[in-house]
Recover the amino acids of this structure.
């Protein structure tokens, strides 16, 4: 739903870890960051809110609790 409120990244990562990937959360969060960065893929796959990094430093994204 396009008009729905944003959810915290920690919530999404927790759901994915609980249902599909019961290992470390860092790989899951980094994959979500790549999907939210408009400069990583041709089209962003995740509509992110917050600091998802910059084109000159793509690893400068904020911690999971802030996005």
């Amino acid at each position: 739903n396009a008009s729905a409120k944003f959810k915290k990244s920690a919530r999404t990562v927790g759901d994915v870890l609980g249902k599909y990937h019961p290992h470390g959360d860092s790989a899951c969060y980094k994959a979500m960051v790549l999907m939210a960065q408009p400069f990583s893929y041709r089209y962003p796959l995740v509509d992110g809110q917050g600091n998802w990094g910059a084109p000159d430093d793509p690893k400068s994204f904020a911690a999971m609790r802030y996005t």
